[in-house]
Design brief:
With 332 residues, this protein is mainly α. 77% of the residues lie in helices and 2% in strands. It is built from 15 helices and two strands. The protein has a two-stranded antiparallel ribbon. β1 and β2 form a beta hairpin. α2 packs antiparallel against α9, α5 crosses α8 and α5 runs antiparallel to α13. The radius of gyration is 21 Å and the shape is globular.
C-alpha cells in the first residue's frame, strides 16, 4: 500500500518539476520533449522483451495507436502544460483528480451504464469541492479570465482531464484484446505524441502560409521563424540553466518513465477503487510541497475544498469500499 502513495508522491514531484520548466520554456518544447524522450526510453527498454514493438507487428494498428496517442497524450499534455503555466500547480492537479467522476459520466453517456443515486450524490459533492477551488484566484490567472468564475487555464485543466480520460477508456478496450500490454502502449503513445507535438507547429505554420498567400489571412513574413518560435528558448538573467535541465530530466524520467510504468503495474495488483482514492493524494502532495517552499500560502479554503471532494469520492465508491472490506474480512 505504501508503494502506491510513494508512486503518487513521485508523480507529484514530477508535476512540480514540469510546472517549473514551463516558467522558462515554451509549452510545445516541454510537452514534446517529455513525451518523445520518455517514449523512446520505454520502447528501448521493452523492445528486447517483446516482439510486439516491431513494425511488422504493430503496423496494422498504427492508425488506432495514433488516435489513442492524440487522446491520451498529445492533446491532454498540451492543455495540461498550458494550465500548469498559468495556474497554481496544486489547483491544476486538483482539477485533474476528478477523473473517476468523469469516467462514470462517460460510461453512462456512451455505454448506458446505470448511475446509482449514491454515485450521483458523490459526483455532485466532488464537483462542489472543485467549485470552491475555482473561486480562489491566483494573480497569474487575472489576465486569462473568460468569465467571472472560470479562466482559460482552468478550462484547459478540465479539458486535459476529460479528453485524457476518454482516451484511457479506449486504451482499456485495446488492452482487453491482449494485443499489447500497458508499458508497450505507453511507449507507443508517448513516442507518437512526441513526434506529433513537434510536427504540429510546422503544419500549422504551413496552413497559415497557404491561407495568407490565398488572401484569407494576413501573410506570414517569415514562416520559418514563426514555426521555430513554438520551440524557441529565451533564457534571461534569472534562469538557472543546470537546475532547469535537472527539472526537465526529472519530469521525463520520474513522471513519464517511472511514474507511468509503476501506475500500470499497480492497476494489476490493486483495485481501481483504491488507486482512484489514493490518486487524490497528488494535489495534496503538491500543495504541501508548494506551501513548504513558500510558493503558495497556507489556505483553509483549499483544504476544506479537498475534504469536500474526497468525501464525494468516498460516497461515490461506497459500495466498492464495502465490498473490499468484506472481501478482506472473509480472507479473499
Amino acid at each position: 500500500m505504501l508503494d502506491v502513495f510513494f508512486c503518487f508522491a513521485l508523480l507529484a514531484s514530477a508535476t512540480i518539476a514540469n510546472a517549473y520548466c514551463l516558467k522558462f520554456l515554451p509549452i510545445v518544447l516541454v510537452a514534446g520533449l517529455r513525451m518523445l524522450v520518455a517514449g523512446i526510453i520505454l520502447v528501448f527498454i521493452f523492445r528486447k522483451k517483446s516482439h510486439r514493438l516491431k513494425f511488422e507487428y504493430f503496423k496494422s494498428d498504427l492508425l488506432v495507436l495514433f488516435g489513442i496517442s492524440m487522446l491520451t497524450m498529445l492533446v491532454p499534455a498540451l492543455l495540461k502544460a498550458y494550465a500548469l503555466k498559468y495556474l497554481p500547480t496544486s489547483k491544476a492537479a486538483f482539477i485533474g483528480s476528478l477523473d473517476p467522476f468523469t469516467t462514470a459520466l462517460y460510461t453512462y453517456w456512451f455505454w448506458h451504464e446505470r448511475l446509482s443515486i449514491q454515485k450521483i450524490v458523490g459526483i455532485c459533492v466532488g464537483f462542489a469541492g472543485v467549485l470552491i477551488v475555482l473561486f480562489s484566484r491566483a494573480p497569474q490567472e487575472e489576465s486569462k479570465i473568460l468569465w467571472w468564475v472560470i479562466s482559460y487555464p482552468e478550462i484547459a485543466a478540465f479539458g486535459a482531464m476529460a479528453i485524457g480520460r476518454l482516451g484511457w477508456l479506449f486504451v482499456q478496450g485495446l488492452l482487453k484484446k491482449e494485443r499489447y500490454n500497458a508499458p508497450e502502449i505507453n511507449g507507443f503513445t508517448m513516442t507518437l505524441s512526441g513526434m506529433a507535438t513537434f510536427i504540429a507547429p510546422v503544419l500549422y505554420t504551413f496552413v497559415l502560409f497557404v491561407t495568407g498567400v490565398l488572401g484569407f489571412t494576413q501573410p506570414l513574413e517569415n514562416p520559418v521563424d514563426y514555426a521555430f518560435s513554438f520551440v524557441a528558448i529565451n533564457f534571461d538573467a534569472i534562469t538557472n540553466g543546470p537546475f532547469l535541465f535537472f527539472a526537465l530530466v526529472h519530469t521525463i524520467i520520474v513522471g513519464n518513465v517511472i511514474g507511468y510504468t509503476l501506475y500500470s503495474n499497480f492497476l494489476r495488483h490493486h483495485s481501481a477503487t483504491f488507486i482512484s482514492l489514493a490518486g487524490f493524494s497528488v494535489p495534496l502532495y503538491i500543495y504541501s510541497f508548494d506551501v513548504f517552499r513558500g510558493i503558495e500560502p497556507f489556505s483553509y479554503v483549499f483544504l476544506g475544498a479537498a475534504c469536500i471532494t474526497f468525501t464525494g469520492l468516498l460516497i461515490f465508491y461506497q459500495a466498492e469500499i464495502k465490498k473490499l472490506i468484506d472481501n478482506k474480512s472473509a480472507g479473499l
